[in-house]
Amino acid sequence: MKDKYWIAFSAIEQIDSSFVQRLYNYFGDVEEAYGACLNDLSQIDGLNVKKAENFLRERDKINPDKALEEVQNRGIDFLTFEDEKYPEMLKQISNPPAVLYYKGDIQSCNLERTLAVVGSRRASFSAKEAVNKILSELKDTDICIVSGLAAGIDTAAHLAALENNLKTIGVIASGFDFIYPSSNKYLYQKLENGGGVVVTEYYPTFQPLKFRFPQRNRIVSGLSYGTLVAEASLKSGALITANLCLEQGRELMCIPGLISNPNTEGIYKLLKNGAALVTHAQDILEALNWEIKPPEQLKIDSGIMNEDEQKIFEALEVEEKGFDELSAITKMGTAELLTNLTTMELKGIIKQVTGDRYKRV
Fold first, then answer.
1. How far apart, in whole angstroms, are the C-alpha atoms of residue 168 and residue 117?
2. Burial class, 95, CB count within 10 angstroms (exposed 0-12 / middle 13-18 / buried 19+)
3. Where in the chain is the domain with CATH 3.40.50.450?
4. Which of 2, 9, 152, 225 is least surrounded by CB atoms within 10 angstroms?
5. CATH 1.10.10.10 residue ranges in the chain?
């Protein structure tokens, strides 16, 4: 079991995920990377010798089996970078976390419909109201709201998600031994107990130190197809997240606010530079080119399908698929699959797109 080496890497405070990724990419095996000697590490182009020596010195203090046990004893789940369930969007960023620790039901969150909502910790009442209004227009859909569980806009976004039956992901800047801010203990519990999931790249004992907050912002934007900014001063964490969103090639959107409010200076700078302006949820859907359907409607659709049609429908949940892919997933023969696809098209449940590919309507 190689999970313990990923956990051991993450338990070393003196290195970061970019260092771990560099070693993993070079050796192609996490156990080999973790067990490398100085001579091995010196072969990696551009690797800082002092960092390598520091890693080796700290590694000798870590027992991988013990590090894994500490996580398991706390009831914390995790996904390592090479786990097949590791979020695909997060894998695409330049510096993905080596490990994602989490509490809650990550499988209940639709990672194909993720929207980050960020903004000022000292948010105005009107900004919080704007976030609540826009998210309420997405009520009962399968869109998942991602934020940082901080005070201000983050808290407003998580609360609005919960109130409107939207799953939500809270990305924290410490290990699970800490709750920051302590006033959000209730929110942590709501996410962990059905509202979504709390995630972090930090080993349980890592404190919420100042430098970790901007580091975690890349995960907030990295998990998301787009980032919505509600209030941001020119030197704010929200603006850092906005810039990360652009670097990652994701869609950036902003809620306008009062021009007399210092916390909107960053907003108008982003809007002038091409960010999409959002005043309604429909603006988000258009910016991200999303077509959504409330879960109730999906249940209605499911009710008019037989068992084989339901299998096909579920296979098309995330993305369009070709005939051969559907055949492999559903285990149906050519004639049987073709008959079901035709029937489903006539019912208006699916449609054929480019070539022999199909998608949900």
1. 10
2. middle
3. 103-288
4. 2
5. 295-360
Q: What are residue 99's DSSP bridge partners?
A: 80
- Is the CATH number 3.90.550 carried by domain 3-73? no
Q: Say if CB 349 and CB 313 are below 8 A apart.
A: yes
pTM: 0.80
Where in the sequence of the chain do the CATH 1.10.150 domains occur? 3-73
Angle at Cα 146 formed by Cα 145 and Cα 150, nearest 5°? Answer: 120
In tens, the pLDDT along 63-119 reads: 999 999 999 999 999 999 999 999 999 999 999 999 999 999 999 999 999 999 999
Describe the chain by its helix, strand, coil percentages, rounded to 5: 50, 15, 40
Q: 303: pLDDT confidence band, cut at 50, 70 and 90? A: low
Residue in the block written with tokens 């010196």: 42
Q: Which CATH architecture has domain 295-360?
A: Orthogonal Bundle (1.10)
- Residue 119's Cβ-count burial label (10 Å; 0-12, 13-18, 19+) is buried
> In this model, does residue 211 exceed pLDDT 90?
yes
- The arithmetic mean of pLDDT across residues 227-235, rounded, is 90
pLDDT of residue 294 exceeding 70, the answer is no
Neighbours of 36 (CB within 10 A): 20
Tokens 């013990």, located at residue: 66
Whole-number Å distance between alpha carbons of 266 and 302: 45
| Residue 19 near residue 51 (C-beta atoms within 8 A) | yes
Residue 163 CA to chain centroid, in angstroms? 20
Amino acid at 189: Q
